[in-house]
Fold:
Amino acid sequence: MTTREPLPSPTVLSRVGTMIRTSAGLGLRDLGFTFARLGILAAGRATLPLDHLFYGAHRRVPIERPVFILGHPRSGTTFLHRLLTCTDEHPAFRTWELLVPSLTARKLIRPLLPALVRVLGKGLHDDTTLFAEDAHEVRVDSVEEEELLLLFALNTQFLLLFTALGFAEADPWDLVFPDRQSAARRRASMALLRGCLQRQILATGCPRVVAKMPYSTLRARTLLEAFPDARFVYLVRSPLETIPSHLSLHRHMFRQVYGLENLSPDLLARYWDRRYRFNVELYRYFREVEMSGDIPAEQLLVVRYPELRSDLEGVFRRVTEFAGLAPSEALRARVAEQSARQASYSRGHTNLRVEDFGIATDRVLADLGWVFDRYGLPQASPTPSLA
Structure:
């Protein structure tokens, strides 16, 4: 394991203060947006202790051989996660459950869920293909990634997207490299994650965790410390495809939440450059972990994105055998259906190019050209620009 100077750990109050100051610089409406998100997180965190009174059994629930799906966002992680969880054989979280991890609070809110689905059911993307790997539809009742649980610890890169922290002047490197945080902060984040996973196992009756946590590629060592018997599935795709796709997704969210016309060009330019640099670290850090052998070979499986497209059933068999999962016949049938459907799949949206975010293709190749050789990926051309 590479020894590095640990990163300073901001207190909760200092982190919240940075978010609020940044929002105030954006405008009153954006300040309200950050306050609303922080309010949801505070309420969700505050209700967790209730489960010690009403669902105390969750603390005794074992978590054995959890499967963590890692990789750069837009590498097929959503596709694989939703594929493995589509028949409810694993304790996956719906979006609303991630926002309300407390089982006690869920029981109180559940009667309101049908109305919430009707009002908030429209997603970030709207695609007719259930497992369309190039889209990421988010609905109140859709399966979403467990990385979002770490919002309640204020310890995930999602804070950069879901609050104004992403527009702050200083780079929040502590969120980028959680493996370099203080031992106390790492333990606290893993305790929160463990407790939430235990609650979901108790609620669903499904014992084997299959969790999607792309940003936690940069906390792989911490995950292994907390879950020594974990299995890691790392998906890898061309950075010339993942990076513009990831930035396009963020741009779409900013258009929905803030309105792009309300964000200054300088502010956006800083955000795109920061997001790009952080994305580069996702590739670099995993290479460091992989080459160090910190994750035992028998606990790590690397899946190349082109394999998902060309041999889905083969990848499914490799993943389930590697992880020791026992898929049902219903799940096998769904995978076979999706495999047949992929042959005629056409993407329902178009991503911008990296150049559209002020990032030269040559810069990507200089930073990440090694990815193509190391993983045998084709150096595909960037996606065409929108008209």
